[in-house]
Amino acid sequence: MSDDRTIGCAVVGLSPRGPFGRARPVAEQPNTELVAVCDVLGDVARRVGEEMGVPHYTDYEKLLEQDNVEMVFIATPDAEHAPQSIAALEAGVHVLCEKPMAITIDEVRVMLAAQQKSGCKLGINQVLRTNPRFAEARRMAASGYLGEIFYCEADYVHNISHLILTGWRGDRRQNHTPFIGGGCHMIDLLRWCVGEVVEIFAYGSHMCLTPEQYPFDDCSVSVLKFENGACGKFAVTYACRRPSFRNFMLYGTERTYLAGRDADRVRINDSLSDVITIDLPVQGHPYGPVIRDFAQAVIDDTEPPISGRDVANTIAVSIAGDESLATGRPVRPERFEF
Predict the structure, then answer these.
(1) How far apart are CA 330 and CA 84, in angstroms?
(2) Closest among 46, 51, 45, 42 to 12, alpha carbons compared
(3) CATH of 129-284+315-327, one of 3.90.1200.10, 3.40.640.10, 3.40.50.300, 3.30.360.10
(4) Residues 108, 312: contact at Cβ < 8 Å?
(5) Residue 328 DSSP SS3
(6) What confidence tens digit (pLDDT) does each residue in 148-183 have?
(7) End-to-end CA distance of the chain
(8) Per residue in 277-298, pLDDT tens?
(9) Mean pLDDT for the stretch of residues 23-52
């Protein structure tokens, strides 16, 4: 492993609400150097570029021509993820793409083909994998500490109605459905801890936001069947009247993992009465570890820890959930094998 090389990284997509939210973590990592920023909003791009001391762009293609851009961190609206990732890969630039990876199966296929042809790395910012609560769930599941997982549940409860009403998430062309836009967080964690989903059956409701405000169901609940025989439940709501909440539970034959409202601890039921409480560092969306690990994979020429080849099946399940809502039938997700 090289300890002294740095990767020149550009950030593409600077939220007006928090324009430095990804640029600063890139600048803070020991193996990345922020070399450019880009946003269609010129004043936002200029502000970040001038304060961080790097070139700023409104034209993405011009950014890709900058010689020292070796890697891009794409954080633009969802519908831009695939075309911008493909353009970067075809230009020989490594890509760390914000979730969701893409909004259609065809886009996923083209992204994976572009990555393979280019020889560049493609990583996806499924950032909750680096949250201590969920990293602990993965460790316990993978080690066998929980026994054989037979049931799981996850809930993505997040009122983002203000973002839907004032930004791009309410635009049908973005396809920011609850399954794809936010629910992919928890679907990805379930896959990571339990295994591949072979079937999904979903119900939805559209009672909080009007169709004019948001063209998709704003709430859904689904039943999942996993390849290993386990079953699960997943729910997502975008306009509930309560604080953000990410429920995550793994029921094993030996122990049960419970991560609910408390961000700084998880509980393990070892028997009917015994409860083990584990205190953890508090982190919500820790971008730094994802950026650092992806850049190190570029330096070492290894597979990124959260790669497009892995996350492709997360998006496939999300898209299958939307298909089940539309058809009223169970759907078997597309399966990417590597």
Answers:
(1) 33
(2) 45
(3) 3.30.360.10
(4) yes
(5) coil
(6) 999 999 999 999 999 999 999 999 999 999 999 999
(7) 25
(8) 877 776 667 899 999 999 999 9
(9) 96
The helix or strand, by DSSP H or E, that contains position 224, with its residue range, turns out to be strand 219-226
| Residue 263, burial from CB neighbour count under 10 angstroms (0-12, 13-18, 19+) | middle
User: For residues 278 and 136, is the Cβ–Cβ distance under 8 A?
Assistant: yes
CA atoms of 321 and 236, how far apart (whole Å): 11
Whole-number pLDDT of residue 282 = 63
Q: 189 and 137 in contact (C-beta within 8 Å)?
A: yes
Q: How far is CA 117 from the centre of its chain?
A: 24
- As a whole number of angstroms, the distance between CA 248 and CA 328 comes to 26
- Name the DSSP class of 252: E
| Residues with Cβ within 8 Å of residue 140, at least 6 apart in sequence | 146, 250, 255, 257, 268
Nearest Cα neighbor of 190 from 160, 227, 164 is: 227
> Which of 44, 58, 312 minimizes the C-alpha distance to 184?
312
pTM: 0.94
Distance CA 104, CA 275 (A): 42
Question: Hey, which residues does 269 pair with through a beta bridge?
Answer: 256, 275
Q: Distance between alpha carbon 328 and the CA centroid of its chain, in Å?
A: 26
Cα(140)–Cα(189) distance, integer angstroms: 13
DSSP 307: B
> How far lies 3's CA from each of 125, 166, 226, in Å?
23, 44, 40
Q: 7-127+287-302, what's its fold?
A: Rossmann fold (3.40.50)
Q: Which helix (H) or strand (E) holds 215?
A: none
Q: Are 73 and 7 in contact (CB under 8 A)?
A: no
Sign of CA dihedral 49, 55, 59, 61: negative
